[in-house]
Write a structure and sequence with these properties.
Elements lengths: L9 H6 L5 H8 L3 H8 L8 H14 L5 H8 L4 E6 L7 H14 L3 E6 L5 H15 L3 E4 L5 H9 L4 E2 L3 E2 L2 E2 L6 H15 L4 E7 L6 H16 L7 E4 L3 H12 L6 E5 L2 H12 L9 E6 L13 E5 L1 H4 L1 H11 L14 E4 L5
Parallel strand pairs: 1-2, 1-3, 3-4, 7-8, 7-9, 9-10, 10-11
Antiparallel strand pairs: 5-6, 11-12
Length: 348
């Protein structure tokens, strides 16, 4: 007679311990060698349905390959380098947490390397030295490296995952998520009746990669809609500096001005700068931020901002990580899921 609470069937027993490659092979109806090849990304010799069957079996059983085994098979360490662009945005931590969480579940140790905007050559040299020293199991780029740089790393045998290039070669053009943010900002301001639009950087961070790409999106919309080429200016994150920056950009202008901001922090600084100088928001100045952080939603007037759904924007990278290292694929998102949307506030 079975003891209460003790599993009596094989499936339940399998769930009571960690799944092995043998379990995956049995579940998929293939050999262990096939499982090893497929989960190591060596899929060229197999039919697509076989590859899908193995990956599905691994996902259903919750199978996670050991980092040590992968590193031994690849002749590399169990480190993965996560390359982040220079930015002051607070949501970078959210991005890093999401991607590194996937890698750590696979048993990897994540090393975060932040590029330096002021010296691309120094950044490239430091990263090459880091790759040579660690012999990482992979490099995950969040959009700071050029396609040429990524190809160089790939030619060393290091698996590379990026919006620009995949582990098998070039994938797509440079991911234009940030340019799309700028385009959404500019289109929203134009729909609200602003015929002149400018871009506001955070002072001291004009070289931030994502900021330059967003300004490019603003410029694109203005050009397509026959608007004046947008000027840009720097906003210090302190009352006197923000007030002076706003006064300078408004000098000589008689029409309402739309301002697309690098971040919510820049937008909030301008909102307070306007309030202290008698400039009415949104009648005289329309302001739209980026990333819809909580601070912008509790100030008055409540900030209009752009929201980016990280589950959607990072789904490609997270899927590539799972496919490269044999992890569990991220949840399939609804077809109508939007990467970027405007959070309506009271400032634009």
């Amino acid at each position: 007679m079975p003891t209460a609470g003790r599993p009596t069937d094989t499936a339940a027993g399998d769930r009571a311990r960690s799944a092995t490659s043998a379990d995956v092979a049995r579940h998929a109806g293939v050999s262990r060698a096939t499982v090893s090849h497929v989960l190591n990304g060596q899929v060229e010799r197999f039919l697509p349905e076989t590859v899908d069957k193995v990956r599905q079996a691994a996902a259903e059983l919750g199978y996670v390959r050991s980092a040590a085994g992968r590193a031994l098979a690849m002749g590399r360490s169990d480190f993965v380098i996560l390359v982040a662009p220079p930015t002051t945005l607070t949501n970078l931590q959210d991005i890093v947490d999401l991607v590194s969480g996937d890698l750590e579940k696979l048993g990897f140790t994540v090393v975060v390397h932040v590029s330096r905007a002021e010296s691309a050559q120094v950044t490239s040299t430091r990263l090459h030295n880091l790759v040579e020293a660690l012999r990482p199991a992979g490099l995950v780029d969040l959009g700071s490296l050029s396609e040429d740089e990524l190809l160089k790393f790939q030619h060393t045998g290091c698996p590379v995952i990026s919006p620009t290039i995949g582990t098998g070669g070039p994938r797509t053009a440079r991911d234009d998520l940030n340019a799309s943010i700028g385009r959404v900002q500019a289109r929203h301001l134009h729909r609200r009746g602003y015929r002149e639009i400018v871009y506001a950087f955070e002072a001291g961070h004009r070289d931030a990669t994502w900021g330059r790409e967003r300004m490019g999106g603003v410029m694109d919309v203005c050009e397509r809609r026959g608007l004046t080429k947008p000027a840009y200016f720097d906003v210090p994150l302190e009352p006197g500096g923000a007030r002076a920056a706003l006064a300078a950009v408004l000098r000589g202008r008689v029409t309402p001005l739309g301002i697309a901001c690098y971040s919510d922090e820049v937008a909030v600084a301008l909102v307070f700068g306007a309030a202290s100088t008698g400039v009415h928001v949104p009648r005289d100045v329309g302001i739209i931020g980026t990333y819809s952080g909580p601070v912008g939603q509790i100030v008055s007037p409540r900030l209009t901002s752009v929201y980016v759904d990280l589950r959607v924007s990072l789904s490609g990278i997270r899927t590539a990580i799972a496919e490269t290292y044999g992890g569990i694929l991220p949840p399939v998102l609804p077809a109508e899921a939007r990467v970027i949307s405007v959070v309506e506030g009271e400032t634009a």
